[in-house]
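Researcher: Quick test of sequence recovery. Tokens follow.
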């Protein structure tokens, strides 16, 4: 392995090699026309001799010692990944010019990462020549005070013809000059410009434009490569220098395509107008992670789609998988259209963390993604007459048929709100960060409350569910510090999504940052005749949830437990939380309401937790020749076939199912799940995608984890499957020893 996972290591050219020479830690071909490898001893300001015309791919990967590069001769090419993630380069000089700065070669990047065993993948599929170089953190070695980031103050690309995809992505470049000889500039070649976002100016040497590009007003426009408009090929705007001093910018007429993140992290620009002919904007086009100066934008009437994805490299440029067009534009308070809008698609997070206080959904809109309007300023949403998909009711956005709540404005002034009776679903992320809502009543027809629906509802104190809600999504009400009471009127307990950890817990107010344990402060009030159902469901989710159920109104019952006609236990309790144990002849089958030892009629089996609305109850122990196998607990676990025959099992989202198997041979265990597809589950583990499991050699000893099996020995396995959506999934489980 030639390099470590974060920095280069030392190379030494051994013997009398007739093909290569090494000087100052750098290996050249014998004529010194090409640079092949830079050792870790290659450091500081490196000056390459005039004979050098090419730097080979991945020559200086992750070298943190290089601070400057000077090329004395004319360079034909800096190949892809040549100075990949060399973070402290602050000077880059091509004295006689450079013809090509290579961009992404994804396939070669993957081959490189696999060949040299980079465990993190290393982003080698985004292997532009200077990808994520010139951007490292600087600090005072004595005081440890931050000194900002490494920066290329001036980059002059004299004689350049080709700048590849991602060639300088995430590099801190302040002033950029590109020669009029340029013929190709790739996607994301200068996107983001690193950590400081100080990209201040870009211009063309010797002219403002050539046959291929116009580079002026601190932006780069590629001619004739955009979608057609009015029968003519449009232009593509590739990037705008986000630290330019201009406060207003009119995107040039003729531009029909704007690259993702072209206007990201604006520092001074407040007003942007877009010309007719643009039909879609990709995710992140104006987005900001550290803040944006943008206040007003004028959109074209031709705009059809505000997307939340990017065309090529989006997930690497800014964190997150769904980046809205204006995501993070914290000062954006006004959005207008040039004429009658044609907008149909508003993607996820489009106006996330903006300053919009109101917005009218155009009549043409047919899709709105999650968190599209989530911000701390939104007071009201309205829908233009004629929209066939959406409607607004008192400023709250619903689907036209009023069956789905899409968005509740965070600064809606009401302190109480009742979700209308016809509503069946509350979308995920739809009611986050509500500032004034204290009392919430959820109508009897609501069956599902989506993930993070009321996340960080700071003022919320009390929630009432009028009906049998079926599912409450992960983090649905997390982060409501004032929530003290949740009332369930339905007789069937809801399924609780996620887990009681960190921010995933459905009703937790916060979590312990040291242990990641969620903190639950509220009390649950449930129907008296459904207490056992709620306790059981909530206990499976987290014991803390079961203990938060108000049991003060239920009365005690005197229990008598019998086996073979004899009393084995007598006690009084209101709710029997766990099944009492019992030993006898054969396998224990459970407790029943009738004594079937004589006629075989045992009646109904009692499920625990158990609650009876009567003063006394007698339960009868039943034994049989076969072990109960329902997968609900150890001792009742499913037994997997040693020959590999699959067992059909219904899994509940995130809940454990218990198994055992006897190893037919020694080796490594491989669990198989027939029926799962990658678009149904979300957990990623080292073992199996979408599945979390623990193998024990003794279920009474939870510390007895096993990784290798021994022939003839019995092992115990608990398995959880985490689904993107839904409550249950069927799949066939089997195992093999390899």
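Model:
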């Amino acid at each position: 392995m030639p390099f470590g996972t974060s920095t280069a290591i030392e190379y030494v050219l051994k013997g009398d090699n007739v093909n290569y020479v090494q000087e100052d830690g750098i290996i050249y071909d014998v004529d010194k026309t090409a640079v092949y490898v830079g050792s870790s001893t290659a450091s500081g300001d490196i000056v390459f001799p005039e004979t050098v015309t090419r730097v080979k791919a991945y020559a200086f990967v992750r070298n943190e010692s290089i601070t400057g590069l000077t090329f004395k001769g004319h360079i034909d090419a800096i190949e892809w990944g040549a100075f990949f993630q060399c973070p402290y380069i602050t000077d880059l000089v091509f004295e006689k010019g450079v013809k090509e700065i290579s961009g992404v070669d994804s396939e070669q990047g993957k081959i490189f990462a696999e060949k040299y065993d980079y465990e993190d993948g290393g982003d080698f599929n985004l292997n532009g020549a200077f990808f994520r170089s010139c951007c490292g953190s600087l600090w005072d070695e004595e005081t440890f005070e931050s000194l900002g980031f490494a920066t290329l103050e001036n980059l002059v690309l004299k004689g350049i013809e080709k700048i590849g995809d991602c060639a300088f992505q995430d590099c801190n470049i302040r002033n950029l000059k590109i020669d009029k000889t340029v013929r190709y500039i790739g996607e994301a070649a200068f996107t983001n410009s690193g950590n400081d976002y100080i990209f201040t100016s870009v211009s063309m040497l010797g002219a403002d434009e050539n046959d291929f590009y116009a580079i002026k007003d601190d932006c780069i426009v590629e001619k004739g490569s955009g979608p057609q408009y009015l029968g003519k090929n449009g232009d593509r705007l590739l990037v705008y220098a986000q630290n330019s001093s201009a406060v207003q910018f009119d995107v040039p007429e003729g531009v029909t395509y704007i690259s993702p993140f072209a206007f990201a992290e604006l520092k001074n620009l407040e007003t942007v107008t877009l010309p007719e002919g643009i039909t879609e904007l990709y995710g992140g086009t104006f987005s900001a992670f550290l803040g944006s100066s943008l206040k007003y934008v004028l959109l074209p009437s031709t705009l059809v789609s505000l997307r939340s994805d990017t065309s090529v490299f989006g997930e690497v440029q800014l964190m997150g998988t769904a980046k809205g067009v204006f995501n993070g534009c914290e000062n954006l308070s006004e959005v207008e259209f040039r004429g009658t809008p044609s907008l149909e698609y508003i993607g996820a997070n489009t106006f996330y963390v903006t300053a919009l206080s109101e917005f009218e959904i155009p009549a043409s809109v047919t899709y709105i993604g999650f968190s599209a309007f989530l911000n701390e300023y939104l007071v009201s949403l309205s829908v233009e007459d004629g929209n066939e998909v959406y409607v607004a009711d008192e400023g709250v956005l619903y689907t036209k048929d009023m069956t789905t709540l899409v968005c509740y404005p965070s600064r809606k002034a009401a302190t109480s709100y009742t979700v209308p009776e016809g509503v069946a679903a509350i979308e995920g992320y739809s009611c986050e960060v509500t500032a004034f809502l204290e009392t919430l009543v959820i109508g009897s027809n609501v069956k599902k409350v989506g993930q993070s629906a009321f996340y960080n509802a700071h003022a919320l104190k009390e929630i009432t569910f009028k009906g049998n809600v079926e599912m409450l999504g992960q983090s649905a009400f997390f982060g409501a510090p004032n929530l003290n009471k949740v009332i369930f009127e339905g007789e069937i307990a809801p399924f609780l999504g996620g887990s009681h950890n960190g921010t995933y817990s459905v009703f937790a107010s916060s979590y312990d940052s040291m242990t990641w344990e969620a903190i639950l402060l509220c009390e649950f009030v449930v129907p008296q005749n459904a207490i056992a159902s709620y306790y059981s469901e909530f206990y499976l989710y987290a014991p803390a949830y079961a203990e938060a159920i108000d049991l003060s109104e239920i009365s005690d019952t005197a229990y008598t437990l019998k086996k073979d006609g004899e009393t084995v236990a007598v006690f009084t309790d209101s709710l029997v939380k766990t099944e009492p144990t019992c030993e006898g002849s054969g396998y224990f089958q459970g407790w029943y309401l009738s004594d079937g030892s004589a006629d075989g009629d045992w009646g109904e089996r009692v499920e625990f937790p158990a609650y009876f609305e009567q003063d006394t109850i007698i339960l009868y122990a039943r034994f049989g020749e076969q072990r109960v196998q329902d997968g609900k607990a150890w001792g009742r676990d499913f037994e997997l076939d040693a020959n590999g025959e699959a067992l059909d099992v219904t899994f509940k989202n995130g809940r454990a199912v218990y198994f055992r198997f006897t190893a037919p041979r020694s080796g490594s265990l491989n669990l198989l799940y027939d029926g799962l597809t990658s678009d149904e589950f979300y957990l990623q583990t080292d073992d199996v995608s979408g599945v979390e499991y623990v193998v024990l050699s003794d279920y009474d000893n939870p510390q007895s984890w096993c990784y290798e099996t021994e022939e003839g020995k019995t092992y115990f396995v608990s398995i959880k499957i985490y689904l993107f959506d839904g409550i249950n999934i069927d799949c066939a489980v089997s195992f093999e020893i390899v």
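The first helix runs from residue 106 to 115.
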